[in-house]
Design a protein that fits this description.
This protein is of the alpha+beta class. It folds into 2 domains: 239 residues, FAD/NAD(P)-binding domain, CATH 3.50.50.60; 136 residues, Translation factors (Elongation Factor Tu (Ef-tu), domain 3). The strands form 5 sheets. Strands 1, 2, 7, 8, 9, 10 and 20 form a 7-stranded mixed beta sheet that branches. A hairpin with a 2-residue loop joins strand 9 and strand 10. The two termini are 20 Å apart. Helix 1 runs parallel beside helix 5, helix 1 packs parallel to helix 13 and helix 9 runs antiparallel to helix 12. The protein is elongated and about 85 Å long. The chain has 13 helices and 21 strands. Bound molecules: flavin-adenine dinucleotide. The site of flavin-adenine dinucleotide has 38 residues, from helix 1, helix 2 and helix 13.
């Protein structure tokens, strides 16, 4: 039986980064990847340019049952560390918005950096090698079955990612292994995902399909100031994707469609200036025309004939356009999986299961989920790096 110091299941962002670090320390590392190529999610990320980190990455930008868990790894390997690596590799990048850093060229530059880096440091990569099962070995360590072969290792790292985009190789192995070794798994659900509405709401929003607008989207305590987009199925765009990580069934989502300009004041000023204008034309200067039309569908009278309380009510509709989503588009389009292997039983410095020496979980399989905008890759780098120092 082939014996390795470290076997890593999954050649995604976290797995490859962990392999590189462990191999640099002289460990004999094997990465087993179920798919035909490493880093498939990196390849398709950020519209092909990979939003590889965020300048503002901080523990507050992550969701977890234990919001403090990610602190250690994020502090030990930061966005500046990853940016240094990108710089050394000569990969050109730019900030798009809100601290989001993208490659100027292709996301394959990041995949190649990781795959070549870990191979150069001595780690081996086997493709089409889906891990089917693992077991604790009698004298310590683990046996791993993959592609009909049995392998053994001292340290086993589960870097198998979440459940999103099943066609890219999600298997749920990390959750299965966690349960097998008695580690709890927090309920998983699709996140960073468009929200859907029922047929009646869909019909009422039909004329808005394709319309995007800057909004302040909120539900419960969560609020995001970014763009929203009306779609055939419901609502999407960065503000809604962000909110989807906080939204729960039955909750309403409120969109302030004019977050920077108070609408009542604009309507009153326009009324004082020229009462012949329609409320719709005032709104059309603040919002996309089709949104203004939907919001004023029952308001044909000019401003002079519209009482102030009706203008007030219109302004409230603009500042709190409220929908109750029926659900989400699910794992088919979700960028990430919320929940996962509970952090309760993991060591935050090393990502090792405290009760199972040698067993590690890194990246998205862990119950740490970042906001949209490069935060999830930063978690993959930080957690992969932390385990890479310890395996
Ligand atoms: C469309 C899309 C765009 C995204 N864009 C961004 C972005 O721009 N910025 C950002 O920060 N985040 C982005 N994300 C999220 C980001 O891709 C993930 O958070 C990140 O890839 C997680 O890294 P990971 O290594 O934990 O898991 P993954 O990258 O998912 O890697 C897991 C690997 O494990 C393999 N695997 C699974 N089961 C097995 C098994 N049984 N045996 C062997 N191998 C197995 C899989 O094939 C896969 O290669 C995006 C996600 C999607 C879906």
């Amino acid at each position: 039986m082939d014996r390795f110091d470290v076997i890593i299941a999954g050649a995604g962002a976290a797995g490859m980064f962990c392999a590189w670090e462990a191999a640099k320390r002289g460990r004999r590392v094997l990465v087993l990847e179920g798919g035909r190529a490493p880093g498939e999610k990196i390849r398709i990320s950020g519209g092909g340019r990979c939003n590889f980190t965020n300048l503002h990455a901080a523990p507050e930008c992550y969701l977890s049952q234990n919001p403090h868990f990610c602190r250690s790894a994020l502090a030990r390997y930061t966005q500046w560390d990853f940016l240094g690596l990108i710089g050394e590799a000569g990969i050109a990048w730019h900030e798009k918005t809100l601290g989001q850093l993208f490659c100027d060229g292709s996301s394959m530059q990041i995949v190649d950096l990781l795959a070549n880096g870990m191979r150069g440091a001595g780690a081996a990569l086997r493709l089409n090698a889906k891990v089917e099962g693992v077991a604790a070995a009698a004298g310590g360590g683990f046996t791993v079955s993959a592609g009909g072969e049995s392998l053994s290792c001292q340290s086993l790292v589960l870097a198998t990612g979440g459940k999103s985009i099943p066609k890219l190789g999600a298997t749920g192995l990390g959750y299965k292994v966690a349960r097998q070794f008695g580690l709890p798994v927090e309920e998983t659900r699709p996140a960073l995902v468009p929200l859907t509405v029922d047929e009646e709401t869909k019909a009422s929003l039909r004329s808005l399909v394709g319309v995007a607008a800057p909004v302040a989207a909120s539900c419960g305590e969560a609020r995001f100031d970014e763009a929203a987009l009306f779609t055939h199925r419901g609502i999407s765009g960065p503000a809604i994707l962000q909110l989807s990580s906080y939204w729960r069934e039955g909750q309403a989502v409120s969109l302030d469609l004019s977050p920077d300009a108070p609408v009542y004041e604009a309507l009153k000023a326009a009324k004082a200036e020229s009462g012949r204008r329609a409320p719709r034309s005032v709104l059309a200067a603040l919002l996309p025309k089709s949104l203004a039309a939907v919001l004023t569908a029952d308001m044909e009278a000019p401003l002079a004939e519209t009482p102030d309380n009706a203008l007030q009510a219109l302004a409230e509709r603009v500042h709190a356009f409220t929908l109750t989503p029926a659900g989400s588009e699910g794992y088919r389009t979700a960028e990430v999986t919320l929940g996962g292997v509970s952090t309760d039983m993991l060591d935050q410095k090393t990502m090792q299961a405290r009760a199972v020496p040698g067993l590690y979980f890194v990246g998205e399989v862990v119950d740490v989920t970042g906001w949209l905008g490069g935060y999830n890759f930063q978690w993959a780098w930080s957690s992969g790096w932390a385990a890479g120092q310890a395996v």
